[in-house]
Amino acid sequence: MSARLPNHIKDVRDLYRLQGVEALRNAPVREWQPPTTTVPSQTDVPGGPMSGGKRMFTYIHCDRMAASLDSSDLVQGLLTHGDASMLYGSSNVGKSFFAVDLAACVATGTYYRGKMRVEGGAVMYITLEGHRSFSNRIAALKRKRRLPPGAPLFIINSTFSLLEASDNEALVNTVLGLADKIGIPVRLIVIDTLSRAMAGGDESSSVDMSSVVRTVDDIRRATGAHVMLVHHCGKDAGRGARGHSSLRAAVDTEIEILKKDGEPLTFAQVTKQRDLPCIPSMAFSLEPTVLGHNNYGDPVTSCTVVHNHDAAAVSSAKTKSKSNKLVPTPEQILELVPITGAIQRKILKHEIIEKLGASNRSADAVIAKMLAESKLREEKVKSPTGQNTTSITRP
User: Is the pLDDT at 101 greater than 60, yes or no?
Assistant: First the structure.
């Protein structure tokens, strides 16, 4: 045993050395006492008087933390305040239509899908491709009375890059300035699309994608708005959104827009939620709306989202597969047919497959359906070599 004197006893270990195991049986039990460390207030800043000129982080003791019971939902069960989300899918599957419809609900404060509570506020929508078609989508919402006069939905259609510090600073200044001007907060910022917003960058690079993630974090923290990125999936749709995996890891919500070959409905599937449970798939379709006629007398159309609440339809959503192909709309087909003149049927079919991502079977099916409905006209002609060919024209 140790020969240390009793006045050197500091703790139970010293008692054990002096008196053996009996000391442990009789030792008093010490009750835990909360620390007396003073917690810095939120006004303390790095380098302030309290830190002695050294940079320090502000911290808080766990005893001062309580359950947060206030709702954090921007859109009930779908989007949370001040966080980040990614909306992705194949080309021409309806991503932007879905995003614009959601933005209109936030701007008007109306229930999303008629039943999901929305905390309304201003929306800043950055559209980086298809400016003319985007204007028509807004016009279609107005015609359907889904976007009344004065609704605080604002559009930026100039170039913008998440990789340029000056652009990001300008966006924050614009959002804060807008909120101050109209007297209501900007709740949602939509960036459509991510690929255009990081032009010149490498989506597969961890360096570039990490820079995008940091920038999105800076924007949402500075503005308090939820930031939604509209993105594409890769060649293999089954592998999710295109680019480095750090993007999916960073966002709080991930939504996939999926349309299966031969199905009339499109599905929005929540594939990730950080703080909310994943809700069931949401079915919707696109309803064409005639906006007017162009200088040739042809109708100018766009679409609005029509939500489908049929549980049987929603439950019919199939698991995504590598062979997933799109079902083109009649409006997309008409864009491939010359206003005057004709196009060979086999060339039209090839363009439907290559440009619209349709399968061979769905390309044949949609051409046949449009011919049966007199939306297209078929003519037999002779080629310069004397062979009979089939040409397609507008009615």
Answer: yes
